[in-house]
Task: inverse folding
């Protein structure tokens, strides 16, 4: 069976994170590009969890504090992300309201929950089927590719509003917290080593081949 093929880690080999060259991990440095070699990213889960905790802490002010000050005909508004979304909806700009909801509220939340769950799976705290694990990992990869959407939305918003000559916009502390959430979730995603997930699956398979001792009949 293909699952009995040796893994690189069993042979003491490591793939370079920068150039992809496979070399003996004992070398310490990649012979091609000089990057440091390790079979798994060091303290991957701990670093991912730390970034996720930071992102979670900032997610609250990002949604509760005003993200901008808008001045229109002398009226000053200081909307939060949610109020901004409701305001666009009220003005019948439905696509913009939807994009704000998806990019600023849903995507960061899904990223944090999915990565947290993957950390639990990588340390064996949850034991999902390989299929579910693959799906969730695929989802985080997909969201990772779209991680700049949130920043894109903010820049579009500002540009849209600045086009109106009667309106001025300046960022507030909520926007800073929101940028923090985006940056920290990106760091969390890059710190996570997905090979830890497949290591756990292999551990599970090996324990299946040895039948567990039953305590009673
Ligand atoms: Zn290299």
Result:
């Amino acid at each position: 069976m293909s699952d009995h093929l040796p893994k690189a880690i069993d042979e003491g080999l490591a793939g370079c994170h920068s150039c992809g060259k496979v070399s003996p991990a004992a070398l310490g440095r990649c012979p091609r590009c000089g990057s440091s070699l390790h079979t798994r990213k060091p303290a991957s889960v701990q670093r991912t969890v730390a970034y996720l905790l930071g992102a979670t802490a900032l997610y609250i002010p990002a949604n509760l504090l005003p993200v901008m000050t808008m001045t229109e005909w002398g009226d000053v508004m200081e909307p939060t992300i949610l109020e901004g979304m409701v305001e666009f909806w009220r003005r019948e700009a439905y696509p913009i309201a939807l994009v704000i909801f998806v990019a600023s509220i849903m995507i960061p939340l899904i990223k944090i929950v999915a990565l947290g769950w993957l950390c639990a799976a990588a340390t064996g705290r949850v034991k999902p089927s390989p299929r579910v694990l693959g799906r969730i990992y695929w989802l985080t990869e997909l969201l990772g590719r779209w991680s700049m959407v949130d920043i894109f939305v903010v820049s579009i918003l500002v540009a849209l509003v600045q086009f109106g000559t009667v309106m001025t916009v300046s960022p507030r502390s909520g926007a800073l917290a929101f940028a923090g959430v985006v940056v920290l979730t990106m760091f969390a995603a890059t710190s996570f080593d997905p090979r830890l997930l497949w290591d756990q699956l292999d551990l599970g398979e090996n324990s299946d081949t040895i039948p567990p001792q039953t305590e009673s009949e």
Q: What stands out?
A: The pocket of zinc ion is lined by residues 16, 18-19, 21, 30, 32-33, 35 (CB under 6 Å).
